[in-house]
Each structure stands twice: as C-alpha cells, then as structure tokens.
Amino acid sequence: MTPPRLPFSRQPLRLIHDRIATGLITAGGVGVLLAILAIGVFLVWEALPLLTFGDALSLNTLSPLAWGTLKAALAAMLFATPIALGAAMYSALFMSKRLRSRVKPILELMEAIPGVVVGFIAGLLLAPWVEQQLASTLLVLVWLPLSAGLAGGLWYLASARVRQWLPLSWAGVRLMPWLAIMVTLALWLAPLMEQAWFGGDLRRMLDQQYGLDYATRNALIVGIAMGFAVIPSISSLAEDALADVPANLREGAQALGASRWQALRKVALPTAGPGVFSAVMIGAGRAVGETMIVLMASGNTALFSASPFEGLRSLSASIAIELPEASPGGMTYHLLIFAALALFIFTFLVNTLAEVVRQRLRQRYQRLGGNR
Amino acid sequence: MAWLSRPLRARATGSLLWPWLCAASVALSLLMLATLLTLLATRGLGHFWPAELEEVTLHSGDTVIGQPVREAPLPNAAGVERLYFTGNRDIGGESWRWVALDDIDTVAVPDDLIRLERAPWGDFIGRLDEVESAGQRFEDEAAWAFVAHAMTLPESQRPIAQLRLTAANGQIITQPLEGITRFQAPNAMSWEQKVVAWSERIWQFLSEGPRAANTGGGVWPAIFGTVLMVILMSVIVTPFGVLAAIYLNEIAHQNRLTRLVRIGVRNLAGVPSIVYGVFGLGVFVYGIGGSIDSWFFEDALPSPTFGTGGLLWASLTLALLTLPVVIVATEEGLARIPDAQREGAVALGATRLEMLTRVVLPMATPAMLTGVILAVARAAGEVAPLMLVGVAKLAPQMPVDGEFPYLHLERKFMHLGYHLFDTAFHGEDVQAAIPLVFATALLLVLIVLVLNLTAIFLRHYLRRQRGNEC
User: Fold this and answer.
1) Contacts of A132 in chain B (CB under 8 A)
2) Does the residue B121 lie in any domain?
3) For chain A, what is the largest distance between any 2 Cα atoms, rounded to a whole number of angstroms?
4) What are the domain boundaries of chain A?
5) What's B418's domain CATH number?
6) Who has greater pLDDT, A203 or A297?
7) DSSP state, A268?
8) What number is the ipTM of this complex?
9) Same domain, B374 and B234
10) Interface contacts A/B by beta carbons within 8 Å
11) Residue B113 is part of which domain span?
12) Which of A131, A234, B134, B350 is deepest in the core (most CB within 10 A)?
C-alpha cells in the first residue's frame, strides 16, 4: 500500500523549511569558520600597535623567553622522539594484533592526562627527587636502553621453548617487570658508582669542575615531563603512517630474504618517512605551546643558558603569568600578544606542513596499492 | 661479538637489538603511565586513611607525638631521619618535626592518643584530659563518651563544652567544642572503623569547601565550578560544532577551498591553548565585556561586571578551543555514512532538511557524542586559558544561588585544575597541603579518564556497527 500523498498545499512549506534550514546551517557553518579565522586576525591587529612604540620598544625582553621555549621543546623532543618512534615501529610491525588493540587506547589515555597533573608531579615530586639523586637519574637514562638490549641478547641465547613462551610480539608488555627490576638495580648501583667515579657527590663535582649550577626545577625535568606528555601523540601518528604502508611492499622484501627488521628499516621506514616526520613536527608544535608543564616544572627564570641543569622560562608561561596583570593598551600587553602571535604562527605553520605531508603520503599509498 | 663475521654481526644486532629497544619503548611508556596512576591513587587515597600516631621518646628526654610521614638520609652525616607531622601549630609554632633515627629511644603506639581537626589552628595531636560542660566535669571514659556522642550530633545541636587537652610537651590547653570538626583516636580504631572513617573523609573531601588555607576540607566548589563551566561550554560548542560539520560535509561544494578550510580546522586543534586564552581575554573580556559594561552596567563602573574574567567568558573560550574536536569527530561520522542512504532518502521524496534530520543525523549521533565527550574531557583538564579568563583561587560566591537570576554568568569560579596548581605552588603550607593536592589530581585524572574511556568505547561500538552494515 502506498502512503497517502501529502496535500498539495503543504508542499511549498516543506520546501521553505528546507531553504530556511539550509540557510541557517550555512550561516552557522560560515560563522564558525569566521570565528576561527578571527583568532589570527585579532592577534595580528593587537600586535600592530607595537610599531607605534618606536624606539621605546625592546624585543630583547622576549628573546630569553623564546630561547627558553626552544630549549624546553628541544629537551622534550630529545626525550620523547626515540621512545615514541620506537614504540610506533614496534606496535605497527612487531606487536600482535590483539595486544595492539589494547595498547592503543591506553596510549590515548596517556595523551589525555591533564598537563597540570603532569606538571605537578614533575615540579613537586620528580624535581626534588632528581636533585637528591642526580647520578641515579642519569644512570637510569643510560641503563634502560642497555638493559633492553640485554633482554634481547638473553632471549637470543635462550632455548626455543623459552622463546616460544616469550614471543617478541608480546615483549612490549612482558618487558615491563624486567624494566622495573632494571630501574631498581640502577637505583641501587648508582650511589656506589657515584662514590667510585664522582667523589660521592656528582652535583658538587659538576659545580666545581665545569661551573654548572644546579637548579631544582630545570630543563632536564621539563624535558622528562613534557616528553611524557608528547610521547603518545607522536607515537600514534607515526604508528598510523607505518601501519598504512601497503603490506605487499614489506612482504615482497621479506620474500626476497630480508629479515623483519631489514624490511622495516629499508622498505617501510623510507616509504612512511614523511608521515613519521610529520608526527615529530606535530609533537614539536605541542611541546612549544604547552603551558602548564613548563610553568610548574621549569622554575620560570628567564636565562640564556644551554645547561640542562638550569631553569628556563617560556613564552607560554610568561603569557599565563603576566598577561592578567598587564594593563590593556600598555606595551607589555602588546608584547605578550605578539608572543602569542608568534606561538600561533609557529604551530599553525608546523601543523599545516605536517598535514600537507600526510595528505601527499596518503595519495602515495593509494598509488602503491594500499588496501587498508 | 668479534667472532662473528661482519654480515652476520650486522644481522644479529639488526634483528636482536633494535626490535627489543622498540619493544622496550612501549614497555617504558606503559610503565611510566602505570607509575603515575599508582602514585596518584596511593598518595591521593592514602591520605584519608586514619594513620597511626606514634609517641616517640628521644634520648634527650623529649617526647614527640605525631604521624610518621617519610624518611630521608641526613643532610650532612650518615644515618636516616624521619619526618613527623605533629600538628599543634598554636603551641610550638611548627607542625612538622624531623627526628634522627639515632636519637630515638622508644616508639610506642598508645591507644589514648587523639587527633582533632579544629577551625583556626589546624590539627591537634595529643591526649584528652577532661571535658567541662554546663558545670559538669567528665574524665577518662566519660569524657570520651561525651565527645564521641557530641560529634555525632549536627553542628547546631552540639552542647557548649570545653576540652582540656595535653600536648606532647606537657602543655595543657583548653579547646571549645564548637571549633572541632573531627575527633579521632586512630590507634584505638578497629579495621572496620577505619574503613568507615576513611570513606567519611573521602565524602567530606568531595562535598565540602576548602578550609585552613587549603590544607583541610574539600574541593566541592571546584568540582561544582568545573562541572558548571563544562556544561555551559558543551551547550555552546555542540550546536555550532555540528552545524559547521554539516555545512562542511553536506552543503558546501567539495572543492579546494573546503579542503583548505578542513586543514585549517584540523590545525586549530594543535594551536596552544594559551593562545585561545589570549584571544578570550582580548576579545571576550576586554572587547565584548567592556562594551556590555559601558552600555548596561554604567553605574557600577569603574569596577567591572562583565569586563573581567568570569564564567561566561571562560566557557566561551573553552568552547572555541574544543570546537575543532567536535567538528573533526562529527565530520568523520558523517563521512562514514554511505551515500546510498542519502540518495535513497532523496529518491523517496525527502527534502534536504528531512534527509538530514531523519536519516543522516540519527546515524551520526554516536560520532557527535564521541566528539562532545572528547571536547568535555579536554576542557575539564585545560587550565592555562582559564588563568586568563576568569578562574579564581577562592570564589567568595558560587556561580549558582537562590538570588535572581540564579545563574550568575559574570562571577568568577573555582576550577579543579587551577585549584591544584594554586595549592601546590602558591599555598602557605605546601607541605601540609600536598596530600590534598594528590587527592585533587587523582579526582581530575579520574574525571578525564572516565570521559575518555566512554569516548573510546563509543567509537569502538560505532566501528563495529559499521562493520556489520558493510
């Protein structure tokens, strides 16, 4: 049975409704896009009055802050990039499917942890602890990769049954207790080594021999804390790029006799290279703009120093501290807005670059016959 | 491995060392996350457990009564010292004491030690001697029974009484009953009593306002402020985000410009949150707020009404910040709906509006929900922009009350994340506030994680459903 036709007189109303709704949606959509555009326009507009200050204007106040921002981002990237890329390579190519579907959401949760919590832990717990146990911390940083290699070596020497029982595809989880034991071991060994090599007090030795000051909250702490915060975003983007490499490329390499690692190193990595690069760029963009972690873990001292053991102050932290007190219209106000503009432009450029690279990469995969 | 030939050696390191290093990075990330969460959970929840009080006699004859907190090596000599929380700020001036382990003669855990939480001076730790109320004196058992009974009554019905207390150094003080918020003898408590006291304190933490310079009480106003701000924000962001996504995906012509716009929206998700804060301060607070003040609240000037940070501006700023999240998630959901569904609807005579509201939007609802939940999770943890647009250390008035118009959009509000930052870094007695900061951090992380888990499960469900359809 066909449904009864609507009376003719109702028809135009439907069309009018449709017109109105389309118009409203268009207006709403365009309005939202304009609002987003307004951010850039506002920042430029408010930074322009700086030109009227003429000679009184000194961008010098911003340069230690810019240096601090770069230093913090660099420290974070030095800590995060190897771990994030390693994790991406492992979970894209070695990890078992079942484990991967569980580890991925966990890494997403890691990304969601608020910066203020990470900063609090770093500034009030990690910083004093590292100050007391500097040698242990440095030893742990060196010892962890070595111990992972050691695990690989032991596994290689172990009997076939052990190898089957502890396959590489589950190592990402099974290594956790091993690493925990190794950290404990390093913490136990560190005071002995400090006694033997550095005369019992590494910090005093650094101070006397190299003239390095040690601030409780320093670039090292910021690097570790902010590294922790950017690891998940880098690794998930890089993993997507690596996992999307068409499987037939790797399979072809392995059929020609390459080991799994060689197939990854010589085929998958070069193909996915741009994607991995864009992941690192996006991570750097986040590290440059992150505010709360730097604010809480860095000591906020505007210094020009390359030492990892001295404090720093970043652009974003300065904005957060000083802008509420700056009088609107004053030079500080406009300077801080200029700093925000710089952050905006930098992250926008970096992200656009990364996005363009990723779109190119997607097209390349389609050409190569990716079927995912 | 010199005994291996070169190619073999290269192969051995290649297939052994590097994969294991990569595996170790995953393990390390998971380990760090687990450590962080365990740390927050144990320190945050452990603080509420009624800890045992120790009575320590030193070789010098002094007595210290307090709760052992932690141990650390002595600064300039071999040995270990222990930190005690001794309370009694009104008597000794200090509420913390380091005791070297070598100085300790005996440690006892007597049952009659009590811990009081009082209004002006913080915790008292010591002994209860007697209670005087309406001319009557109670001693020993009777005094205990009297105070225990009085504490069960609501605050307004408690009798007027004076407690005579002895501190560790033998000094005797009198304390009126009305200033006391909790009376505990942790050493005498059984395991079940401790569990009850523990859950009571957690409830207190969630339902009360901060007291004694954030070292006591709870975080209720901060929870309330956070939730209210997030609700307002999602009310603003959901319609606009969905509208923009529908426009981009269903109405606008798919050409170079829409592609550019899409890239732009995606990039905005990567712009630092502090930049949004600057925008909010400049445009909403000084620009729009200033104009509103000069038009409608002229008589209140120069003290600003809307021209200063407040609830409305904070929610607007965060709505702008989370807009890309909602747009991207909704667009993904819309793009997944097969075109055949739309064409079918149009072929059956539906107009575009009917097609959207009856076919497309119901199918995209889980995706929109995912987007909104992710936006809420992001907004709940974001602090930096709020510092510019209206968060307060201690808001004197809640943003919702019985006074017309009930919801005060111009008021400042408290926020969990900012409360955490402020207590941990600008507090008077940071040492005493740290346990509560841990509890606050745990609460914040729990909120954010639960929201994110919901979003992850929704997305998972969505993917599975799509798998069935195809």
Assistant:
1) 72
2) yes
3) 97
4) 59-132+215-367
5) 1.10.3720.10
6) A297
7) I
8) 0.87
9) yes
10) 324
11) 48-193
12) A234
Cis peptide before B405 (omega within 30 of 0): yes
Q: Nearest residue of B to residue A12 by CA position?
A: B351
List chain A residues with CB under 8 Å of B24. Answer: 86, 144-145, 147-148, 151, 171, 175, 179
Task: Compute CA distances A5 → A8, A308, B344, whole Å.
Answer: 8, 78, 18
Beta carbons of B27 and A337 less than 8 Å apart: no
Q: Do B265 and A14 touch (CB under 8 A)?
A: no
B160 and B226 fall within a common domain: no
CB atoms within 10 A of CB B242: 25
> Using CB atoms, which residue from B21, B36, B274 is nearest to A148?
B21
For A:128-147, CB contacts with B below 8 A are 132, 144-145, 147
Could you read off the pLDDT of A24-58 as tens digits, one per residue?
888 888 888 788 788 889 999 888 887 777 666 66
Which residues 6+ apart lie within 8 Å of B92 measured at CB?
B86, B167, B169
CATH 3.30.565.10 fits A59-132+215-367, yes or no: no
Would you state the structure tokens that stand for residue A307, as one six-digit string?
């030492």
Which residue, B388, B263, B444, B282, is CA-closest to A348?
B263
Q: Locate all alpha helices (DSSP H) within B1-56, ordered by sequence.
A: 6-46
Interface touch A18/B353, C-beta < 8 Å: yes
pLDDT tens readout for residues A121-139 = 998 888 888 888 888 888 8
Q: Which residues of chain B have pLDDT under 70?
A: 1-16, 77, 212-216, 300-301, 395-397, 402, 404, 466-470
Residue B38 counted as domain residue? no
Mark which residues 36-55 of A lie under 8 Å from B by CB.
36-39, 42-43, 46
CB contact under 8 A, A316 and B356: no
Question: Are B186 and B224 part of one and the same domain?
Answer: no
pTM of the prediction?
Answer: 0.86
**Domain contains B162:** yes
Same domain, B181 and B268: no
* DSSP code for B382: -
Q: What is the domain count for chain B?
A: 2
B36: closest CA of chain A, how far (Å): 8
B147 and B238 part of one domain? no
Chain A residue with minimum CA distance to B286: A328
B177 and B228 belong to one structural domain: no
Q: In this structure, are B460 and B326 located in the same domain?
A: yes
Is residue B112 a part of any domain in this protein?
yes
- Residue contact A29–B244, C-beta within 8 A: yes
Looking at beta carbons, which residues of chain B come within 8 Å of A107? 29
pLDDT of residue B369: 86
